[in-house]
Amino acid sequence: MPELPEVEVVRRSLQRSLVGDRFNAVEVRSPTLREPIPRGRLRAAARGRQVLEVRRRSKYLLIDLEGAESIVVHLGMSGRLRYFETQDPAEAHEHVVWSLDSGRELRFRDPRRFGVVLVLSTAEIPQDPHFRRLGREPLDVDLEGLIEGSDLRQLAVGRRGPVKGFLMDAHCVVGVGNIYACEALWRAGIHPRRSVARIAKGRWDALAVEVVSVLREAVLQGGTTLNDFSSAGGEPGYFAVDLQAYGREGAPCLRCGSKIRRITQSGRSTYYCPGCQR
DNA sequence: CGTAGACCCTGCGCGC
DNA sequence: TGCGCGCAGGGTCTAC
Q1: A92 touches strand B (CB under 7 A)
Q2: Which of A7, A192, A195, A277 could link A164 by a cystine bridge, Cβ 3.0 to 4.6 Å?
Q3: Which pLDDT score, from 0 to 100, does residue A227 have?
Q4: How far apart are CA A168 and CA A184, in angstroms?
């Protein structure tokens, strides 16, 4: 479900309506997601603590609480984090349900259970295995600025293999998943199988520009809803209509008219235009 | 060190 | 209608 834009959209809706609210209880309904859910720590963190801020690092949501602890949520492939009224009927696969002082509930639902829910102290976060080796935020305006061609080129030094895998490797650049990797490469006119060792300086620049623009546009459109993605308030995203390569196998390229092709790379579908991606 | 493949898990749409 | 297959937005571990 979620790449950087979708996680960012959820973050923004939580930031708007969760900050200032207070957790008062949590119910853990399944023992394990991708990792065991830390019941005890989650319960302690839910006891009367106010939400100070909701942040994002890579595809992780960080719900900062009083007491210098954060509830950390990763949505995996099928995870959703949404609030509900208490009387709203429960759906299948609601693994964690928090109740809030406002009377609402925050529910984490994840049929495939590739997601993660944990609690970390502020001090633990940078050292934690989930965060320690993460790469560059492409849209981090405050700290490092937008990602540039020179950043990508440096990150790719010593690497081999196709550029699509490089873009999707969170140890290099975070937040770019299968959809936006395909879209950025289409926009930049770069073949997804091209080796990172064979990309000229100017093309790295173009790629960085397109990574930034596709992610930004997707955030503005509320993310990409293919199946069931929604913000924390339940609104779908509208970027799917702007996808120009992903999911368009056999359809004409919107730039050159060639048929969009689907191939498999590292077990994931790649969509690209054989006519204008080189 | 880096990369490719298997694997984690459930649901959906398709062809038969 | 029912069944099997392939596919799905992520990440980690293992074997090379």
Answers
A1: yes
A2: A192
A3: 80
A4: 11
The verdict on pTM exceeding 0.90 is yes
HEC string of chain A equals CCCHHHHHHHHHHHHHHCCCCEEEEEEECCCECCCECCHHHHHHHHCCCEEEEEEEECCEEEEEECCCEEEEEECCCCCEEEEEECCCCCCCCEEEEEEECCCEEEEEECCCCCCEEEEEECCCHHHCHHHHCCCECCCCCCCCCCCCHHHHHHHCCCCCCEHHHHHHCCCCECCCCHHHHHHHHHHHCCCCCCEHHHCCHHHHHHHHHHHHHHHHHHHHCCCECCCCCCCCCCCCCEHHHHCCCCCCCCCECCCCCCECEEEEECCEEEEECCCCCC
pLDDT in tens, A184-193: 999 999 999 9
Q: How far is CA A2 from the centre of its chain?
A: 4
Banded model confidence at residue A1, pLDDT cuts 50, 70, 90: low
Which residues 37-76 in chain A have a CB closer than 7 A to strand B? none
Residues 154-183 in A having a C-beta less than 7 A from any atom of strand B are 158-162, 165-166, 169
